[in-house]
Amino acid sequence: MDRLEQYIKDNRSSFDVELPPSGSRERFMARLEADNNKRNVVRFRPVWLSVAVSAVAVLAVVLGLSYTEADRAIERCISEMNSQEAHVIALVGKVCPQDMDIVMNSIRSITSEAIPFTDLLPDELPEEERLVIIKDYYGRKTEALQRLMACYDVE
């Protein structure tokens, strides 16, 4: 125990002689509570905010580096094929619902891949050539879906 603490302890009775002014306790507690609230906000917000900003920055860098124009073109080809598939299903559902099982099997035969085609191409293949092959592959699948749809198109 240091000397100041010992002095206060020894002379405690002389410190407790007068009463504090009225309302002092309430003002003290209000300031203490305000200080505690400020500290909590200051402590937690920067940690949460810095973690969120760091996560967004890492994602932006990772996604920005790995997502190329070729990837976008491939995504468009696959999206076009999926859109055509949805059109076929909708058309057959309206025109000839009794054939839905046959059509769904045909669609599965056309579109299903045990291993995505893009994963089967060698990594050494130049990106331009890879893109041409993939567009041709998914283009043929889309054409097959269009031919299937033409069988049921009565318009």
Explain what the structure shows.
With 155 residues, the chain is an all-alpha fold. The chain folds into two domains: 1-67, no CATH class; 68-152. The chain is 80% helix and 0% strand. The longest helix has 43 residues, at 24-66. It starts with a helix and ends with a helix. The model is unreliable at 40-46 (pLDDT under 50).
Oligomeric state of the chains present here: single chain
Major sheet summary line? none
Percent range for β-strand residues:
under 5%
Instruction: Write down the overall geometry.
Output: elongated
What is the structure about, briefly put?
The chain is mainly alpha-helical and 155 residues long.
Fill in the keyword field for this structure:
mainly alpha, single chain, 155 residues
List the helices and strands and how they pair.
Elements: H1 3-10, H2 12-15, H3 24-66, H4 69-95, H5 100-111, H6 117-120, H7 127-152
Helix pairs in contact: 4-5, 4-7, 5-7
